[in-house]
Amino acid sequence: TGLRDIGFTLPGANGRPDFYWLSRDSALLIRGGANYAYEQVGDDLSRIVEEEFDLPSGQFKLAVIGLRVTSEHDDSCCVTIELSPEAAAFAPRLEKEFLDLACRRVPHGERPDYLRLAPIPLSFKGATLLPQLKAEFEEALRGGTVIT
């Protein structure tokens, strides 16, 4: 259908297949039945980095993805921040303060749950490679290298 739904079918009782929906492969964070665009959440969180940490936008990149970590129904908001070499000194403060500051400043549905400081995979056109970012974040979650 072009909606990028992920699911499977099983034979149904009436002889027609039943479709079981699992998730949607999209750039949407799904929380509490509402959808939040990764790009909008990322823009809002980037403003916090700029304002609270006094980091110009050219010294960091920020990307948001949604992963089912603690709930089978709602996504966790997973944030990756890539710092430029000039901004590397901000890493300890970001690790310590970002999640708390962001949770106080953004609407409930945009509140970040996890943070990692790492490179953000980009295409040759500069777009975030979401499947690769998701895989890398899941690996970091398994390895315990994310901040909560």
Polypeptide structure, described:
With 148 residues, this protein is of the alpha+beta class. Helix content is 30%, strand content 29%. It has three helices and seven strands, in the order ββββαββαβα. The protein has helices at 38-52, 91-105, 130-143; strands spanning 5-11, 17-24, 28-31, 34-37, 60-67, 76-83, 114-117. Strands 5-6-7 form a three-stranded mixed beta sheet, with helices on both faces. A two-stranded antiparallel sheet has the order 1-2. Helix 1 (38-52) packs across helix 2. The chain starts with a strand and ends in a 5-residue tail after the last helix. The model has no long low-confidence stretch (mean pLDDT 89).
Number of continuous helical runs: 3
Shape: elongated
Q: In percent, how much strand structure appears in the residues?
A: 25-35%
Which structural class do you get from the secondary structure elements? alpha+beta
Strands, total number: 7
* Element order: H for helix, E for strand: EEEEHEEHEH
Helix content: 25-40%
- Main β sheet profile: 3 strands, mixed
Oligomer designation: single chain
